[in-house]
Amino acid sequence: MDELNSCLYKGVVMHHRFRPSKNRFIYRVFCVCIDLDELPQLNKQRFFSINTFNLFSFHEKDHGSGQENLPENIRSLLTERGYASATHKIRLLCYPRILGYTFNPLSTYFCYNSNDELEAILYEVSNTFGSRHTYLLEASPNADQVRHQCDKQMYVSPFMPMQTSYGFRIQPPKQRVAVCIRQTEWATNSAEKQPILHATFTGEHCVLNDRSLLGVFFKYPLMTLKVMSGIHWEALKLWRKKLVLQPRDTGKSHSISWQDKSGVSHYESL
Fold first, then answer.
1. According to the UniProt record, where is the region Disordered (predicted)?
2. Which of 10, 117, 159, 184 could form a disulfide with 193 if both were Cys (CB 3.0 to 4.6 A apart)?
3. Is the pTM of this model over 0.70?
4. Which of 22-36, 165-179, 246-260 has the highest average model confidence (pLDDT)?
5. pLDDT tens column, 223-264
6. Residue 84, CA distances (Å) to 76, 113, 137 in order
């Protein structure tokens, strides 16, 4: 089998909460970076399957609108919002299912034009209540580092207020990938936004084949279950510190926000 464009990134996740109570954790993880046009080839791997159970698997319904045929779904989403030229190649950085289970707090789509230039990024944020919101933002072609800013649109954590902003700093996937998010809010008696949370993933490239998949299975056993368990454990610690619970909007399950080529912002339920 020819070497795939799809690959693994092995690295570290770090969360650092600044206010109103400090909290920090670091753990080792790996992600898959999937070229969406390679789903048929990936399905031929011994330990990796598409839409069926395996040691590792990728299910299209875990992403996008929750339906199968994810490549078509994402290309339609981009085209309908004025980014048709960014549909030539789409790479998705996310956690795979491990023994049938996964949870992705953030899945990141890198969308390239026919010159292999990064033109748009989709930040697909999911919460533990089954809701998903996608932030579609334009990228500068050939930039070594991409920076984005947007207002929070979806309830994520019971301890995180809605009136906050995300600052994304991205190193697109090559030999290394980095996804850094800084969440801020206007603090009382302050003329500047103050940081609430800093979350990062940094990873090093690794080929995706049967040998590497078996290696990460034993090096990161039940990783996606560990991610979910870690989320609830950290929430328990914050609750014990008596942080105020935030009200949750239960009216939306899937939505998208984006800025068109003229700079006008939009929001739509999917």
1. 251-270
2. 184
3. yes
4. 165-179
5. 765 665 555 555 555 545 555 555 556 556 889 999 887 878
6. 8, 9, 13
Neighbouring C-beta atoms of residue 232, cutoff 10 Å: 10
Q: Count of CB atoms within 10 A of residue 44's CB?
A: 10
Flag whether pLDDT at 15 surpasses 80: yes
Q: Exposure of 14 by Cβ count < 10 A (0-12 exposed, 13-18 middle, 19+ buried)? A: middle
Strand duo 132-138 + 254-259: pairing = parallel
Angle at 8 between CA 149 and CA 78, to 5 degrees: 40
Q: Parallel, antiparallel, or unpaired: how do β-strands 97-98 and 56-58 relate?
A: antiparallel
User: H helices of the chain, where?
Assistant: 39-42, 70-80, 210-219, 223-240
- Cβ atoms 90, 63 nearer than 8 A: no
Contact indicator for 173, 151 with CB cutoff of 8 Å: no
β-pairing, 56-58 vs 48-50, is: parallel
Percent with pLDDT over 70 in the chain: 86
Q: 193 or 148: which carries more pLDDT confidence?
A: 148
Phi–psi pair at 40, nearest 5 degrees: -60, -40
Whether the CB-CB separation of 48 and 40 falls below 8 Å is answered with: no
Which of left, alpha, beta for 64 (phi over 0: left; psi -120 to 50: alpha)? left
8 A C-beta contact, residue 141 and residue 147: no
Q: How far apart, in Å, do the first and last CA atoms of the chain sit?
A: 38
